[in-house]
């Protein structure tokens, strides 16, 4: 019998340690930015580069690239993409900032790192680690941790009502995307969607941040986020149930095939 690895023996502890690593890296990046008097926008970039290296090393060590979803996307799952791409469509509208080409290039690569890191960790490593504790637990806990990681936005001067709304919204998005990752057994489509959502958000960042720091409520934005949250929660429940049903059917078929054949009297 092979010896259990740490993430198999202590999945909850492993996930908590991973979440703490994310927080510590963010604090270290913040300290570097402050001490070197770097522009504020470099903070996120430094954080994501470090986390991208850590994520890659973990995946290499665990040999989990295929396990978390770096494999072929099947055409039969195309319809499942409709809901996950809705936030991207919403981000295409609005006023874009007139920033230099250098900033566009910077945000492009930084958002590539964001998509890889956040999906790789929350919909990849954490989700797969927690699966042994149950599908629903894996989906809910990984989504909750993804949501809580956004609470640091309060430190950036965001209005607390906007922070609470984002915590709800990010949990719902994470819930739906986790279901998609499990059902399709792929993660790279989510990385691309996440990258594009963040890229278009950042090139509109000045306008977005002003509204988020404002004490006035954006009623349209709140309604949009709440409706989208409900849609993603419903989507996540339906798709997760579909995944569990498929998994159960495969287990039953495997069990039936392993049963010895009883000879029929001639």
What secondary-structure arrangement, pairings included, does this model have?
Blueprint lengths: L5 H4 L1 H25 L5 H22 L2 H4 L17 H6 L9 H30 L4 H14 L11 H25 L3 H15 L2 H9 L5 H40 L8
Helix pairs in contact: 2-3, 2-6, 3-6, 6-7, 6-8, 6-9, 7-8, 8-11
Would you give an account of this structure?
The chain has 266 residues and is mainly alpha-helical. The chain has a domain at 67-247. Helix content is 73%, strand content 0%. The protein has eleven helices and no strands. It has helices at residues 6-9, 11-35, 41-62, 65-68, 86-91, 101-130, 135-148, 160-184, 188-202, 205-213, 219-258. Helix 7 (135-148) runs antiparallel to helix 8 (160-184). The radius of gyration is 21 Å and the shape is globular. 32% of the residues are buried.
Offer a quick outline of the entry.
The protein is an all-alpha fold and 266 residues long.
Keywords:
disordered C terminus; 266 residues; 73% helix; mainly alpha
Name the poorly predicted regions. 207-215, 261-266
The largest β sheet comes out as: none
Order of helices and strands: HHHHHHHHHHH
Oligomer: single chain
Count of extended strands: 0
Q: What proportion of the residues is helical, as a percent range?
A: over 70%
Q: End-to-end distance, in Å?
A: 44 Å
**What class do helices, strands and sheet pairing give?**
mainly alpha
Shape: globular
Average pLDDT rating:
86
Helices, by number, come to 11
Strand content: under 5%
Structural Rg: 21 Å
């Amino acid at each position: 019998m092979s010896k259990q690895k740490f993430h198999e023996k202590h999945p909850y502890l492993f996930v908590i340690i991973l979440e703490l690593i994310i927080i510590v890296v963010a604090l270290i990046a913040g300290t570097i930015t402050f001490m070197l008097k770097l522009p504020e926008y470099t903070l996120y970039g430094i954080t994501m580069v470090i986390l991208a290296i850590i994520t890659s090393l973990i995946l290499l060590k665990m040999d989990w690239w295929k396990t978390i979803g770096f494999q072929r996307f099947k055409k039969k799952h195309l319809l499942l993409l409709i809901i996950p791409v809705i936030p991207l469509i919403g981000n295409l509208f609005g006023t874009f900032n007139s920033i230099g080409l250098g900033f566009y290039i910077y945000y492009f690569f930084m958002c590539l790192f964001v998509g890889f890191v956040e999906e790789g960790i929350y919909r990849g490593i954490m989700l797969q680690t927690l699966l042994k504790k149950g599908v629903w637990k894996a989906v809910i806990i990984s989504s909750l941790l993804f949501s809580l990681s956004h609470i640091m936005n309060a430190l950036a001067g965001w209005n607390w009502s906007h922070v609470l709304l984002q915590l709800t919204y990010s949990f719902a998005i994470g819930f739906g995307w986790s279901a998609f990752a499990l059902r399709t057994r792929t993660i790279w489509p989510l990385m691309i969607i996440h990258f594009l959502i963040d890229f278009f958000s950042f090139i509109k960042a000045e306008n977005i941040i002003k509204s988020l720091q404002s004490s006035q409520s954006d009623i349209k934005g709140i309604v949009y986020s709440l409706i989208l949250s409900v849609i993603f929660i419903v989507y996540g429940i339906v798709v997760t149930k579909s995944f569990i049903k498929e998994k159960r059917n495969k287990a039953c078929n495997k069990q039936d095939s392993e049963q010895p054949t009883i000879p029929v009297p001639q």
